Amino acid sequence: MTRVAIMGSGSWGTAFGMVLADAGSDVVIWGRDADVVADIVDHRRNEAYHPGIDLPDSLTATGDAATALSGASLVVLAVPAQVLRDNLAVWGTGIESDAVLVSLMKGIELGTSKRMSQVITESAAVAPERVAVVSGPNLAREIAERQPAATTVACADEDSARRLQDACTTDYFRPYWTTDVIGTEIGGAVKNVIAVANGIAAGMGLGENSQASLITRGLAEMARLGVSLGADPLTFQGLAGVGDLVATCQSSLSRNRTFGFNLGRGLSVEETIAVTKQTCEAYKSCQPILALGREHGVEMPITEQVVEVLYHGRSPRTMAASFMAREPKAEALLGE
Predict the structure, then answer these.
(1) HSE of 285 in the Cβ direction (CA atoms, 13 Å)?
(2) pLDDT (tens digit per residue) in 271-307
(3) Which of the residues are catalytic?
(4) Is domain 186-324 in CATH 1.20.58.100, yes or no?
């Protein structure tokens, strides 16, 4: 039986741990919150994130990182993107030398504009062939309820990608493998920013035409950035691209959409942060994503407007006007 360490006891880490346990692995979740750990161990629940959901018997938890990592051939990283580097500095020596490290994080690092797989290879001193990424239309609550879903698992090494695919295949969770790590990560990170923009539009009362336009142009924005970094453009037509984008932009379960919705209905940025109970990756990642686009000469108008609203005091109600005032151009997925 494969032993898996889930480093992070939040919503998605717990749900993915359930998938791995249901697929036949022995799963240990590491958590910083002692109450969450005790709930998992004593009651087979994580009521803080998934109330009412029973956890598999082969899933347990610990507050000791070394215990979780010991003997784990898969190490799943499920902490907020901006604390990954610091955590890996602490965990690094406890990670088995042949373990595959799996990123569930959909963000870009502040200060470096690096993708999470790049942060992992640097901080954990591992080869890219040992780093995998999971990304797709995977709203954690629906996965925890074992509703049918699919995802993308990506790794530069095909064997490792297939190994991870096998480890998380169940009758309700269907992973597809790829070696396009760049495209998979860029899709996961940028779609969060587009979801904030879409949430703003919905919160303002704008209709389906406006939201569909944002989603479609957001897909083009995402693809332009990814291709400029070396991604396969076809990745953005799949689960890690348009699939994840649609789910995150349209679902009330999406924390990024909800963040934007609260802004659109009139809350300030400070008020929105105060009522947000879980990490909104777009809040921290939108600036390094925009910086990455500028570094590579990629125009990202939606991301730029989100940054203006979140960090420069622009009213959300001016966002649509700014977007509509852009010079008309021919439509192309990878065009400007």
Answers:
(1) 29
(2) 999 998 777 889 999 999 999 999 999 999 999 999 9
(3) 191
(4) no
